[in-house]
Known about the structure:
Largest sheet: 2 strands, antiparallel
Strand order of the largest sheet: 1-2
Oligomer: single chain
Strand content: under 5%
Shape: globular
Number of strands: 2
Radius of gyration: 20 Å
Distance between the termini: 37 Å
Amino acid sequence: MEWNASLLIVVLPFVVALLCVALVHPTMVRIARMKEIVDVPNARKLQRIPIPILGGSCVFLGIVAGIGCASFLTDCEELFIVVPALTVMLYIGTGDDILGLSPRLRLLVELLTMLYLIGIGPFVIDDFYGLWGIDVLPAGVAWPLSLVASVGIINAINLIDGVDGLSSGFCIMACILFGVMFYGAGDHAMAVLAAVSAGALLPFFFHNVFGRTSKMFIGDGGTLVLGVVMSVFVMRLLQRQTPCAVFVGQGVGLVPFALAVLAVPVFDTLRVMTARMAGGHSPFRPDKTHLHHLFIGLGFSHAGTTAVVLGLNILVLLAWWIAWLAGATINFQMYVVLVMGIAVTSGVYYGLHHLRPRQRLYRLLHRWGHWTHGERTGMVLWLQRVMDRM
Length: 390
């Protein structure tokens, strides 16, 4: 009975968040089209027609509604500290979607928002749990590290939002993984946040991937909100006396696990920004050098690109999991994640970027990519009709 009660604390808010977004999404699409709050195609963007960009508002509403529901079931005080940070990110991101804010202003707001969470909330990276012999970190190291890591995660999630379903699909996967970890450790507040975030993202994901008239982008408002959620998960996982410390005794490397979950966004963002700076450009300069751009260039559909990129991230997770099952030390788990993370991002990008049409591997990948464009048939066509009628 106790197990069923704790599961209800997670499942009911998940359902509330999902239904809330499912009900609000069609109205938001109509409002965005009516007020011309759309993402207009240009040389850098991949869509051909203007697409509504208020998806982040739907996801935010679902998260907050789910947290409100959970507050009747369990102690959610920590989550009400997170909600103001999510609100600020929604406003600054949506403002950027509509008005085009400067990168410096966005960065400043991100820094101040995460300082609020680190200073006011119980969220900070201050314990490595034995990685490289490091345990508790002094505040003079923990605060700057938490600030840099959290802002980096926010921008990494924002930068993978380049094809339909990628950012939302990735965050659903990450929420499930973090949520299982938190639920297993008895950290109900964080498990609720993971559940309501996944629930809020699911209806949006289906509309984004399968809808045509109902398609809407999550926008910077949504990706910045999700970036804060991912940052909160990482800081909670790596803070001193976290409930998840129970897994350390089982040989789980908490730092390697967190990095494995966020492998593709983190490693691909580091690769892209390093390449930009090496070329004498700003690390925030927009371009088309991300991993998802590579697969689009090889002829993959948006859905196919999303599946491949998520698959690459899962490879990193599987490598970490196998290392843990084999009884590898925390340090070795970290090295496995680092090597695999670099391999599936920099290795894949630079290994495939220079392929020429006459090369056998290029032709093979191009045929595979062409096959992924057959998704508008059968079950997928039925899903499109269902999404557009909702």
